[in-house]
Amino acid sequence: MKKTLLLLLLLIGALSSYGYSREHFTEIIPNPEGKSYIYRLTLKDKKGTPYSLSEPGKYLSEKSVERRRRQGLAVDSTDLPVSPTYLKQIAHNDVNIVGISKWNNTVLVRSANRQALERLGRLPFVKSTMKVWESRDSIPSPMGRVSVESKFESWDSTKDKLYGEGQNQIEVLDGVKLHDAGFRGKGMTIAVLDAGFMNVDKIDAFSNVNILGTHNFVVPSPTTVYKQMDHGTKVLSTMAMNQPHTFVGTAPDASYWLLRSEDYSSENVVEEDYWAEAAEFADSVGVDIISSSLGYHHFDDSLANHHYWEQDGHTALISRTASMLADKGIICVNSAGNDGMGSWKRISFPADADNILTVGALTYQGLNSPFSSVGPTADGRIKPDVMAIGSSTSVVSGSGSIQHNNGTSFSCPTLAGMVACLWQALPGKTAKQIIQLVREAGNNASHPDNIYGYGTPDFWKAYQLGLQSASVVSDVAEQRQTNL
To answer: For the segment 420-464, what is each residue's pLDDT rounded down to a tens digit?
Structure first.
């Protein structure tokens, strides 16, 4: 009993560091699902697929194709769906397919029969197999939804601050000027990858947020992303909240997809696969930006733990997937992690990915928060990329109340919202160009390091830099035309 209680307390403590609340867990209970396993099958090729690169409209949405076309990006073999011929041979009575990643050409299979899963490795088209999840005998029992407060308290309102509790967070990024110029994220779509969005469907303050849809990738999982865990609720609020003089976020006019890829009851490699599935889904529905306050390095099975040498942006499946996003026309904004005061200290995975914005946490005094994870990557790249307020960040909890939480989990979405506003203001820029502008606008850009990265971005400056570069390109094109 003492051992069980200790495990529960350790789990709660770990989750609390990412903004999970203690009240979300009550007791350890027997696992109702029984014993089972999930394996990742990596396939050798995509032979037998009925799709072709010349007809992307048959397997990509119109918005996804248009986003690539607008940025001059080609559809490639990673976009082709996994071979249905192979999928038919994998599935049988003892094995269920529970996930697919076409970008990584992988398949998740689940069964209570471990031998049946291991036999799949002998199929001629299977390159490798890996156990990525094993059910626990006992799991923490979530409490489900907490009660919701009908409205904000009267003292939460501030007549002299339009942004209310969000005022300082956006001012640090010099984002008010962008908003005043009419760029509040309208027309931009942000996918939020998280562990749950408890009561977003019931809290009045979220009623004017444009939520396009939700999806749950965790296996097994409840049918709604709104039932358990309010970490995603808090994350979403930093961007989407639109209650003048009480709380206005950094992208109140953007549209949102709420995607659950984190299994908060355990820590297993399979969550990287869920993340990859969520990223591919985001691509398929035409998302512009992914805000991910998730990161991994140590797991329940210590043999699966990541090592620092793997932080090259391509070794871990989750990092390899994140590194693909800019080439699909999507900007990924990911939290650096909260291990600065622990033995790991380094950024998490996929914070090591190429061509993303990894966000560290800043105090209101302009210093890095002690818990904020640091770089560099194993191959020597600067990380984090940029910083935003992550110490005493204003958020809305699952109960509908305004709280102040710590974590790169909250500096990440605060900055992601401003990225949406910047891209709205500079629609002709590619994902990689916007990422570079944000770095160049950092107050540490002249001497980037592995604590602050390129520093805290001034988004009005980023906008001006973007206008200047567009003007230069226009002038060069005009001069070429004159010479002709």
So the answer is: 999 999 999 999 999 999 999 999 999 999 999 999 999 999 999
How many structural domains does the chain have?
3
Q: String of b and e for 411-425 (b: at least 16 CB within 10 Å)?
A: bbbbbbbbbbbbbbb
Pair 279, 334 in one domain: yes
Give 244-270 as a DSSP string: TTTEE-S-TTSEEEEEE---TT---TH
- Residue 18 is part of which domain span? 2-30
Same domain as 178, residue 114? no
Query: pLDDT tens digit string along 162-191?
Result: 999 999 999 999 999 999 999 999 999 999
Q: Do 19 and 90 belong together in one domain?
A: no
Q: Is the pLDDT of residue 7 over 90?
A: no
What does residue 457 show for φ and ψ, rounded to 5 degrees? -70, 140
- The CATH number that applies at residue 195 is 3.40.50.200
Token output for 336: 């650096």
Same domain, 220 and 320: yes
Helix (H) or strand (E) holding 127: strand 126-134
Residue 271 lies in a domain: yes
* Max Cα–Cα distance, the chain, nearest Å: 83
Give the separation between CA 413 and CA 411, rounded to whole angstroms.
6
What pTM value is reported for the model? 0.91
